[in-house]
Amino acid sequence: MWRKLRHLLIFLLIILKEPNTPEAGCSCSTSTFCQIRPLWFTRRTPCCNCDGQNLTGIPPDLPENIAFLYLGNNKITSFPQNIPKSIGQLELENNQIRSIPPGALSCLLQLVELNLDKNGITNVKPGTFSDHKMLYTVCLSSNNITEIQTGTFSNLPELKRLFLHDNQINQIQPGAFLNLPKLWSLGLRSNRMTSIRPGTFTNLPKLEYLDLEANRLSVLPQSAHGMLPAGIRKIICFEKNPWQCDCRMRPFRLKMTGSAKFENKITCEHPAHLRGQKLKDINPEDLICKETTASTLPFDSHTSSAVSTSSSFASTESTTSPTAHPLSYR
Ligand SMILES: *[C@@H]1O[C@H](CO)[C@@H](O)[C@H](O)[C@H]1NC(C)=O
Ligand SMILES: *[C@@H]1O[C@H](CO)[C@@H](O)[C@H](O)[C@H]1NC(C)=O
Questions:
Q1: What is the CATH number that goes with domain 1-11+21-118?
Q2: Pocket test for ligand 2, best of 123, 144, 170 (most atoms within 8 A of CB)
Q3: Can you list the residues of the chain whose pLDDT is less than 50?
Q4: Pocket test for ligand 1, best of 27, 49, 51, 54 (most atoms within 8 A of CB)
Q5: What is the DSSP secondary-structure string of 166-192?
Q6: So which residues are the signal peptide here (predicted)?
Q7: Distance between CA 13 and CA 9 in Å, rounded?
Q8: How large is the C-alpha radius of gyration of the chain?
Q9: pTM of the predicted model over 0.85
């Protein structure tokens, strides 16, 4: 009992220990534990906390071999140039960074986590996040990214978590996520995607969590079914999308077997009389289109190898009325 208490006290003393060397505006620690809001204890030290110091760049006189640097809530307007090469975790959330220069990460060979949430990044150039041996987590949520181009996230053998929530992404080019053998979680919630092209989520063998909630997806063609991670432990968030339960969704519905977990996540928005019903509960024969659309084949069904020929796996015409614009082949 007393031994346990003593251990607890020692532990509390360690975590309450005053930072060792106060730097200009930052507090730095080389003790065993390092707690930096909002991150819990990190064992990567030395670490410095420069939270909300009105900094415009990397402060001078950081400890040697710094492993962890929290620079959140500052006034940094461009990606810092002189980042210590020893850095393992770099937190730059809530600054005003607009772009990441090509090659910015190429000398940061120890970097495992980069957090750029809540900046004003509009564009991530292909290659920015490529060929890095250590990167494990990349956070780019709450920026203004509109498109993810081919090769943007490629050849990252350790990348496990990639967060792109709350951007304005309306287009992900095939091959945007390329050769990411360990990618486990991919967050795309609250974006503007109307379609998912074939090749977008393929070859991600470890992907278990794909968040597509609150996008503008409305139709999934038949070919989509086999491309989505469908294992028993895999989770796809499909909620809050304007799913159109009409003839365009019928081929996909016919592919549904009840075994893929994501099948349960598609709740109809249109037509009105099916609103709120789950697609899986609707008889395929009730998935009908009126007037012009009724005579239009689902756009990827004119060929058996829809994967390689159709350029899109959800209709990009989805936001327009089905009667005004019959679906077109590309
Ligand atoms: C940052 O700047 C604001 C506005 O000039 C000021 O009110 C605040 O005290 C500054 N914070 C620090 C930590 O210097
Ligand atoms: C990012 O988007 C927000 C919301 O749409 C907008 O208010 C802001 O001005 C944009 N910032 C940049 C840098 O484009």
A1: 3.80.10.10
A2: 144
A3: 1-2, 5, 8-23, 293-330
A4: 54
A5: SS---EE-TTSEES-TT--EEE--S--
A6: 1-24
A7: 6
A8: 24
A9: no
